[in-house]
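Board notes (copied after class):
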Amino acid sequence: MKSNNKTQRSNGIELTDIIIFFIVFIIFGMALLSFFPGLLTSDNVDQINQAITNSYVNAHPVLHSFIIGNLTKLSGIWVPALFQILIFAIGWTYCCKVARKYNDSGSNKIFQIIATLAISVIPLNFLYSITLWKDILYSYSFLILLAQIYIGVKENYKYTIPQMILIAISTISIMKLRHNGVPIGLLMFAILLVLNFIFNKKWKQSVCMLITFIVTFIVFSIPGWTINITNTGGTEVGGVLDSTKIYCMGALLNSDIEFEVEDLEFLDSIFDINDWKNLYSPYDGTSILFNTNLNKEVLETEEGAERFNEIFIKYAKQKPGTIIVHFIKVNSIWWSIKEHGAMHSIIINNGSVSEMSNGIYDNHPIWWKGNDKLGNYAINTLSTKVVYNIMYRPAVAIWVSLITIVAVCIKERKKGYLLILLPMILNIGTYVFLMSSQDQRYFYPCFMTEYISIIIFASTFIKNEKMRNVKINKNINKENPKTLIIIPAYNESESIEKTVNSVYDEQIENCDVIVINDGSKDNTLEVAKRTNARVIDLPNNLGIGGAVQTGYLYALENDYDIAIQIDGDGQHNTKYIRNVIEQIKEGNDLVIGSRFVEKTNYNQTFMRMLGNNIISFTIKLLTGRKICDTTSGYRGANKNIIEEFAKSYPYDYPEPCTNMRILKEGYKVKEIPVMMKNRETGVSSISPSKAAIYMIKVTLAILLMGLKY
């Protein structure tokens, strides 16, 4: 029963899921408000008009035209833009949840949240989410498919019915949202189906998977069966001749091949030979392929197409190296981190379609300030070389994907993870011989692969447990434990003597007091020496962390069973020391005196309460345990913790950071209720701004330390 409940909880919506979803939704939503009603190009205007007139042309995938066109008819292009945002937010949240199924540690949760934030603020992603290109939903389909491949590798390709449905939806979406996606989606489904049977040897399961695919395919085909579709007859340039040969001919014409006069005359009838040579670029063929002077009529006849094909083959055989170099260069967008030719990337307004659409789709930002800020931010990232390469260059995404997945294969000793790279490789393969320009959107699936590869990499290499094994307590003298009270002091001349005496007033047996004078500039040292406490005078101010660690080091070297730290300013009520000792004797490793574990009349300021709650939430996210009073310096430690703190103790934010670390190490921590002296009113000398800065810095420190341990 316990394992079933655990499974149900892991399948339900968790707080981490909500955080990840809303990070994406809010940031992408801000982009939509800033560039309202969304972004598009002339292709999208044509697709939307097809839906409005119910006269579809298969030059664009009909399913995509149907989706964005009919969603636009509801209330404008912001509807399909919002639809895309929701698809990515839900899809990405799902992918993160899948990865956490195999590593549900707090550190992995924090990593996923940070990674989601980083991915969401990349202009490529928040601008693409509101751009109505077919490549966007096509790429999001890859994301869902990759999650299913990861599950397959982990579970020996034994899929549940919902997972089979997601495989069908993702592969069929890939097939129907881009023409080049047909072989990719079909092949990937076939591979997963075969692997399902090979690993499980269950016909019923494989048949169920196949039926799910067929039914989903039928459902996705219904729009195409019910609408008016016109076939365009092929490529942009017409006839059987594709644009690749026309583009490559520019490379041949610029080589040292001697063309026969009659061949040149025929080529000149298609496109001016001098323009063909001068306009040719190995990185962008649009100036030739979309030139208004390109005579497509010559190529639309069977005789003209055959003649051009003969000429191309004739001279390509003479200089095959020229063709090879052409393809290497035009494909540099996906293999070279260095940009050799200008890459078509993001758009930030609909100015290019304003005239052709009579201004219907002009941008009218709801959040004008966001339009200015996000637009400038996007432009700045495009103009900074290193940032540009990391955020936008497909080659970087591909190399990161390769490195991270290979690392996972090595760590897990399982080659099956390489299958995660296959959809990306297949997508690249469909463009290798057909590419005519450096269009980044064709390779957006590479970025989806990169992002999920990073999540998988983190889930593999981050320690796969919320807490380590519980440590065994070192033996302490439970009858009469040797106890040390550590009092760090910096300029506490007015309170140090009273604090020390209040400890001795408790008359605790076998208890010593040590004052660590942390380079005080007043006469704290002289006052402390007048008491019965041992005194260590630090030559320099080491800060609270250094002073307290000195005390723990003293406790370790002198074999104390228990060490209790209290502040030298007199705020800690020493009447609770006996309870701290008793709790340690009962087997707790670290005992924290908490103002908030029970309702007391200690009134916090709003900023202190907010800061404490945020820090408490962060620690719980990392460890699974809640600490109510995260910054309490009233703490008791047994021999285990004395040794830990003597070896390592943070300089800044020692209490929250060490609380998190001790929980991660698997030690037993307990909070007990305490009240402070003269602090019941909650009056604080810390300003709200300083409290806010402290909260932010502590939270970041805990996150970084949490990923380390």
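Comment from the instructor: Strands lie at 56-57, 229-230, 483-489, 511-517, 534-537, 562-565, 590-594, 635-637, 669-673. The domain at 483-708 is CATH 3.90.550.10 (Spore Coat Polysaccharide Biosynthesis Protein SpsA; Chain A).
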